[in-house]
Every structure is written in C-alpha cells, then in structure tokens.
Design brief:
This protein has helices at about 25-30, 40-45, 60-70, 95-110, 130-135, 155, 175-190, 215-225, 245-255, 265-270, 330-335, 340-350; strands spanning about 10, 75, 85-90, 110-115, 145-150, 165-170, 205-210, 230-240, 260-265, 275-280, 280-285, 285-290, 310. By secondary structure, the protein is of the alpha/beta class. It has two domains: about 10-175 and about 335-355, Rossmann fold; about 175-335, 3-Layer(aba) Sandwich (Rossmann fold). The chain has a five-stranded parallel sheet. Helix 6 (about 155) links the parallel strand 5 (about 145-150) and strand 6.
Length: about 375
Amino acid sequence: MVSRTRPLKTRRAPHLTNSIGKRLDPRELLSSGDKQIDFDRLMTLAGRDVVSARDFDRETIIELCKFAALLELTEIASHHLLDGKLVITAFFEASTRTRLSFESAVQRLDGRIVSVPDGKTTGVAKGESLRDIGEMFNTYGDLVVMRHPETESLDQIRQHLLLPIINAGNGSGEHPTQAMIDIYTLLKWRPDLALDDCPADSAVHLAIIGTPGNMRAVKSFAMLALLFPTAFKRITVVSEMADPFGVELAAAIEASSVPVDVTNDVTDVLRDVDVIYINSIALLGDSYKQLDSRFKLDADRPLKDGAVILHPLARRDELDRSLDETEHNLYFAQAASAVFLRQALLITVLDRLHTLPPGVPYLAS
C-alpha cells in the first residue's frame, strides 16, 4: 500500500533538463494510455537483482518509466524515501555518468552511499576474489550497484552476495539500466510507443549503428526494444560485421516478432529511419575497437526529417557536435532522464514504495 501521510508536491516543469537538443515533458507519458501506475507490478521487483534486460517484460518496463515520469515531475526529496538505506556503488571500471547518476539518485532520496570509485583501491589489487568481496558487502549495505570490466564478474560476486545487485555494466555483457533510460527517453518523446495497440503510423524504424553483441549498452537496449513489437516496426543494424549479434541477442531476435536486418551501408538507412542508436566502443576479446569512419554521424548526413539520435555517452568523434543544436539531438535528453529512472528502480528494488506520500494524480493502483 502507498502511504497516506504527507501530500506530494508536483512541479510545473521537470526539475532537471538538458540545455540544448530536444526537451521532453514527462507529463505527456503520464497523460497517455492507462494513467494509473500499476504499483502491484512494481512491488514484485522488491529485493530482485537487476542483471540483464532479459529479466524484465514489456509491462514492467512501461510501469517503471511511468513511475520515473512521476518522480521527474515531483518534489520528492523532502519525503526521504530511502532514509536509512545504504547503497554500495562498486565501480571496478571507470565511469562518470552511470556512477554519478546512481549516487545522485540515492542521495536525492536521502539514502546513503558507500563508494568504491576505483577498483585499484580495494583488495582486488592484492588478489582478493569478487566472491569474497561479495561476502563482505553483505554487512556493509542494503544494495550493490557494480560495474566491472569482466563479463563473468556478476556470477563471481553473486556466489556469496545476499544483497540485491544492480548491474551497471559487466565487460561485454549488459548494461540494463542504461537500456531502461533509453526506453524511458523514447516513451517521453513518443508516448504512443507505450500503447498496447500502438498505431501503425506511430511505429518507428530503429537503426542501431555498431555491433550490439560486443557493446553492452546497445545489446541491452536492443533486447528491450524487441519487447515492443507494435512500437518498433523494424530494426536495422548497421555494422561492418556479418554477425553483429552474439548468442544471447540472436536468441532474443529469434523469439521476437520485430523484423531485424543487417547492412553495412549507413547512408541508405539514414534516409528512412526514425530513431538512430549509436555507440563508439566495442569490446573484442581483450581490446576495444572504435567505429569505422564510414559510420560516423554529423549534420551533413541525410537524416530523415524528425529523426532522433540516441547515444549512451561518453562520445568520441562518431557523433559530431554539429548535431548538438539540431532537432535530431535526443542524446542530451536521454542523459537527463538517468537520475529519475534509476530513482524509480532503487525505490522498487529496496522495497520503499510504501513510503510514497499521496496527493498526485496517477499515484494510485
């Protein structure tokens, strides 16, 4: 049940936004379709690990996005939803946006942070195993957010870890919360995409530039996109590799009704697609590889009118700054969505939905 103690104040406009590029109003998502948030569905996430995009279904993702929109429109900090909760942010691999947005999300909800900002400062530098670190974490906090350069790291730390863990990126594996942010951004941009019967003329053609099988954020995003068969009428992967998917994503494609094709000709694709998702870095073996120059985007590319670009950031020269002040820039709005989606996830996983105060439309199940 949702607490009925203090009223919740709404904002007339989102609290945080991007300075350039498309600016998105979360009210449009909340005013479309079923306006009520299904808190019963969200309550099923309490205590769960968030390891893979495959752990979620379409309906749960939509409810998380609606909850994030509510938080984006709400003055929530004074209600201390995570008061008494301690989150361990364990980043054994470099991170700026993911780590800071998680820590911002926690602290804006009055939770507390114990941080590992650099794996070199931990016992790992002396040969300590992740298995033993997981055992130690059990007494240090209530939830772990971890990024690690090794794909197998989650399996290792979860051998003894009793706390719920959120995967913030594991080698070439996945980055599920980034994918949720990406979907949240698209649903704010085009709320019709969340409808069970998304109109055919609202469905979008998505292009993914890169190799999803080796790009964890892109892989997780593609897996979530495949859950929306009426919203994505086609997915075209633009890659220099003949098989850019990998085993897990290939299986998800096989199970989905969304048509997926592959090409290495980016110019022809750009004339037709509505959404372009681009990233620069792929993990191949033990080294990183950047996109070929043929696939780079700038303002001179033949982009379709109204098409938008997503990028998980940080970028290099694959996404030129000449696009920043154009109608195609959705990537800064994407970054601005991160704190709110992660707040929604933290509140649900830490089982704090019951602390929500009343007083806002949509705050009923």
